[in-house]
Each structure stands twice: as structure tokens, then as C-alpha cells.
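Usage

Read records sequentially. Each one opens with the input sequence:
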Amino acid sequence: MSGHSKWSTIKHQKGAADAKRGVLFTKISREIAVAVKNGGGPDPDMNFHLRLALDKAKSANMPQDSISRAVKRGSGESNDGEVLEEITYEGYGPGGGAIIVEALTTNRNRTASDVRSAFSRGGGNLGETGCVSWNFDSLGVIGMEMKDEERGEELGLIAIDAGADDVKLEDEFLEIFTAVDQLQKVQKQLEGEGIPPEAAQISKVPKTTIALDDKQAEQTLRLLDVLEDLDDVQKAYTNADFPPEVLERYQAEA
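and closes with the structure output:
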């Protein structure tokens, strides 16, 4: 598994710590509300973006009343007067790795200031719109640990038959890539094979990666953590490829 893919996996594991601080619940609540508002209503059977957000909420053990409030907020039943705006920022980390930051905010100026400050203090640079997004594709991604290589190959074939475009099985980790409009179909097929639904997400996948040395990698990982700890930031993506030993230290801190 590449250093980039492994970072994405560890980042998901570190989300458990975010939940303890309440940060993750806030982010998921916003994601649910926007999915309801923009994705087709409050019925997850008719709104796949909402279903993905609800799967994430359940995986994080988010309280049902918090989920219900988020759904009502998105459907307009509970109006707190605040309007969530989706904003994407682009820039570079230490060593030149491309970074995309997705945010949901009620205050564009506050979020822009916070993101700019994080890049500056973290040794990166906030760029113009479009400066790095050309190097990323929006794809459906289903990822999971897979120690049984034979089972991983079997699941990969099932995914391809269901409409997946590519499968990678390396270092006991299985990644399945789909077009966004095929993710739901592939996910449903794999659920029948016992794969948890929260393994699926819509992600920005880099077309090419850039290798970093140890110092640059450590700085970039810290920058990504700072960005994702911002209240308004939902996700950060990078094309940085991290050295294995740096990721091992990073994982130990998860």
C-alpha cells in the first residue's frame, strides 16, 4: 500500500479520538444537513449522500437525537438562522504536496482566515482555486483492512463485476475504486459479503503522488491534522506519499 493510501486509513482511525472531543459529531451533523438539503431529501433510500453520512454517524456512535436534529436542520424543519456554505480551498504543503480542503461554514471570512493561518503556520501555502484540483479525481472509494489475501482477491472480483473500475490489494489493505454514480451499487453488493457500509466514501483521489522526505512528511502530517481539527473543515486530501517509518510513528500517536 502506498504511503498516501496508508495515511488515509490511519486518518480514519484517528477519527475516533475526534469523536471524544465532540469535533467529529459536529462535522457529521453538518454533512447530514447538507446532504438532506442538496442531495434529495431526508430519506436515505432515495438520497445516497445522506446514506453515506448516516453510515458515518452510526460508525462513530453518534446519538440518534443528534442525527435527527441534523436531518431536521437540512430539511428546514429546524431553522437556527444559519446557512451552511460549501467551500473548497487549495494549496501546497511542505515539500510541495498538493492539498485540497473541503469546508462547511456559516462564516466564509472566518473559515478563510483559519485555513490561511493553518497553511502559513504549517509551512505550506494557500493557493488559488484550481491550482491543484486538476490532479485529483472525485471517486467512490471502499477501503478496509484485509489480512486474508485470497478473500481480498475474491471481494475485488465481486466489486469489479458490480461496476468498480479498479482494485488494489497491498500490505493487507483492500481499496476499491468506482465512479461516484456506481458507488452505491458496488457498496450494496459488498454489504451482502459482510463489508461494513461505513467503509465507503466519496473521496478526492490523486492522479499522481509526490514523495516527501522524513522532515517534509512530518510537517505535512501535522498541517493536515491542524486543518482537519478546524471546526469548519470537513476533509483534507493530499497527493503526498509518506515514508513508511514516518507513518508508523504517526499511527502510534493515533
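Summary fields computed downstream for this record:
- Strands lie at 85-92, 98-105, 125-126, 136-145, 166-170, 173-178, 200-206, 210-211, 233-238, 240-241.
- The first strand starts at residue 85 and ends at 92.
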